[in-house]
Amino acid sequence: MTSPQAPLGPRSPSVQLPFRDYFKVGYGQFGYSRSIQTEHAVLVEAAKSIGEQTLIGRVESLHRFGFHDVPISAELYSPLWTRAWGYVAAQGTVDARFTPTYSVAGEVYQGLGIVHPLLSIFEASAGYRRLSYRTDDINLFMPSLTVYLPFDTWLTEQLYWVPETGAITLASRLTWRPTPRIQLFVSGSFGTSGERIVATQDIARIGSHTIQGGFIIPLMERLSLEATGYYEDRGRLYSRQGGNFSIIYHW
Asked: Torsion angle of alpha carbons 31, 60, 87, 104, nearest 10°?
């Protein structure tokens, strides 16, 4: 059985989530406390199924903290062995100010039903990301556990750990997919995340928490709307709130 999170496997004769072939255009805006400039983000993304695999390419235009970065990234999702799947990803930014100059990542998901049928509702993952900034490099480890519940609902608990700073964040996300083209989620996180306003600033452990929610709904046969609302509190640094939306054309 393919994980409902995985954009892979044989193509369905009808359009359904997670979308395999699509073109997405999005916009986001976020306001800050402490008189920090408003953040603006533009997204262009496309995905193409290749057999049972899916390739996703993405270009973002980010205006944040008075700087402008244009990161370009790609992800390749693939089935692996029995009840397992994963992805590899890469990202690069020319003349990066606040995003990584480059990053590489990978994550492997394993359904635990391979151990015993009673564990088939669980899916574990192990992920790693290497981020290179102008002044230093960061290693990010991302283990997770997903529990699949009745009514096409699942809960994911994911840990983010940066050993260089000791920063640890725990994120929880509850997702519900009532129909093949409608998906809703709510998530929250708390911990000590790394903060970087400009690439020359040292990474600091900052206590923070976030609340997020969003949905994907159909507009027409080949169009869907994706929208997300977001609130983040970084203690003495700032609070950040806003959202984004995207129009998705799929086939």
From this structure: -90
